[in-house]
Structure formats: C-alpha cells, structure tokens
Amino acid sequence: MLDTVIPTLTWAAAVGCGLMAGVFFAFSTFVMKGLERLPAAQGIAAMQAINVAAVSGLFLGVLMLTALVCAGLAVSSGWTWGTEATRWRLLGCAAYLIGGFVVTAAFNVPRNNLLAALQADSPGAALDWARYLSEWTAWNHVRTVACLAAAVLLVRSLR
Asked: How many helices and strands, by DSSP H and E, does the chain display?
C-alpha cells in the first residue's frame, strides 16, 4: 500500500509546492513592484485587500494542505528510511515546511497583521509602507526559492 500512497502524496505535495512557488514568484517579480509604484496610501489599501482575499480563498487551502501532506510524508520517512528516494523526499518536505510554511507564519503574516492595522492616510504610513515592502518582499524571495526547491526535490524523489 505504501508503494502507491507515498508516490501519490509526493506528487500532490510537489504540485502544491509548485503552485506556492508560482504565487510567491509572481509577488516577488511584479506584484510588489507594481504596488510600490502606487502612492503609499493606495499601495497600502491594495495590499490590505490582497491579504484579506488570500486568507479567505484557495491560496490558504493550498498552503495548508501542502504543509499537511509534507508533514505526513516526513513522518512516513520512518517506514522507508534508508532509500535514496526517502532522503530526497524528506529534503523536499523540509524545504517547504521550513522555507515556505514557517517563513510565512513567522515573517510574512506578522508583517501582514501590522499592515492590516495601519491607516493608509496616517502620518508615517509612507515610511511604514516602504519598510513593509522591503522586509515582506525579502522574506517572500526566501519562500519562492524554498518552494521551488521543494517541488524539484519532491519530483527528484520519484525518479
């Protein structure tokens, strides 16, 4: 049974990691740059709206489900330990769980929460927005690379 369940879950995790890498890549390469070009109040309001949509949509489902599948695969490594495939799979799961999921929870979400409380037209909002853009985007680059690496490592484990 493990011969079919683990590869199926590995493919599901790889697809989830790839989807997350694509979303994060889009934000790193043009979404944040586009928001940065707006006046601060408009950029803040736009990102606040994006953040509300992200937690109520399919994005959060894929983020969480991929984390659950990766966690399950990591635990299952105990049953298949010693194979090259297990090592690649475990590395892929770790890349996603640490670089994608933990980074999101520890670095991007707290910044989103601070941004949610920010009044876009308040004094100092432009400085807060500039700091948010810099810090959030830097951590988003980490998520992008980690999720892409996770997808590659998971696919590699299937060879």
From this structure: 8, 0
